Amino acid sequence: MSDTPSGEPGSTTRRPRLTVFSGPSGVGKSSVLAELRRLNPDIFFSVSVTTRSPRPGEVDGVHYHFVDPAEFQRMALAGELLEHAEYAGNQYGTPRGPVEAALAAGRPALLEIELQGARQVRRAMPEAQLVMLLPPSWEDLVHRLSGRGTEEPALVARRLAVARQELDARDEFDATVVNTDVRTAAAKLLTLVVGPGLSTNACS
Question: Where do the annotations place ATP binding (predicted)?
Answer without folding.
Answer: 23-30
